[in-house]
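[Meeting: bench + compute handoff]

Bench side (C.D.) handed over the final construct sequence. Compute side (W.E.) agreed to return the predicted structure before the next meeting so the bench team could plan truncations. Sequence as handed over:
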Amino acid sequence: MNHMTDKKQQGIALITVLLVLSLATVAAVSMTSRQQLDIRRTTNILLIEEAYATLLAVEDFAKRGLIEDAKQSNTDAFNDFWASEEIQKQAIPVGNFTLTEFYVEDLQGRFNLTNLMDANGTSVDTNHQSNFRRLLNEVGLPASLVNASIDWMDDNANPTGNDGAESDMYSSLEKPYRTPNTLMASASELFRLHGVNLTGLQDSNNTNREYRQKICMMLLGDELVCGISTQPDPVTQQVASLEKNLLISLPERTPINVNTVASPAIYMMLVRGLSRADAEAIYSDIQISVKDKDAKFTNSNGFWTHPKIQNLNPRFPESERVEISVSSNYFLFRAQAINKTNEDFVVYLNTIMKRTSNQGAATTVEVVRRSFGKAGEI
């Protein structure tokens, strides 16, 4: 009996040893796996921080470039160095990354949604209201977005016109929200407006999908980000051919720089009755002036007295003119850092800058907002 009991105890001891060994093995494997994950996570964090640091250094270089540009000329045009394709094609190796895709855009070549409101932000600017309506018509978006944009920003609860939309409209949605009743912090708030707020970019509802994709293209100009596929879909094909980068929302009202408009559609927006052919002719003149290393318009009057505008019949009334300029304060800087060993590891930088040039004082450039990501926050 004692002999059999001893064998049973030995068997139990062996099983216990095996169990403890298995648990120790599992724990060791788990700790090793966790350690590998921690190492990988730490490596990624260090790489991201390195990419951010190098991108911010390039951003500082762009700031200095804009300051030097202001010293050299009183105008901003496509012939300025910041618009040079040679700079955009640069590839600079720094540490574990290659900095590339440098891009500076004059944001005053776009329509600023803030201009829909007066300087106090309380009343509607009717001339800019008409301009925005013409621009939307040109790209095939409903005019109702004009009044919806105004109601989104104005400080009252009364819908503008028959197609306005205040908080009462949005609070009745399945996922309710309210109008902020202040200026748009980002033009991407357009996606929340009545008429385009119910469906996603890839929704099966073609009308809403088309509207949202068009707005996306007007903000970002990137087919991939805007969900536009290469499939032979008539809706996406129409949106893909749309003029790009037409809208922005800035912290203050800004005149449009007629030397750096993003598209002939901006000229058609500024001048009621201007045909696409005439707008494209003016835009072509701008491109020719770039080759001549000169700004096409050296003052605002040069635009209004352009033959294509001056010879309009009927003439475009001065009372409908909005403020324009030949120089700018707001710019968008973009760059990306690509990891040298893994090209899928890409960090993007998008920075909106404001350049301030005060007479008798040093020119400064400050960051308005900064975002990291392929699309950024425009």
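W.E. noted at the follow-up: Residues 199-204 have pLDDT under 50 and may be disordered. C.D. will use this when planning the next construct.
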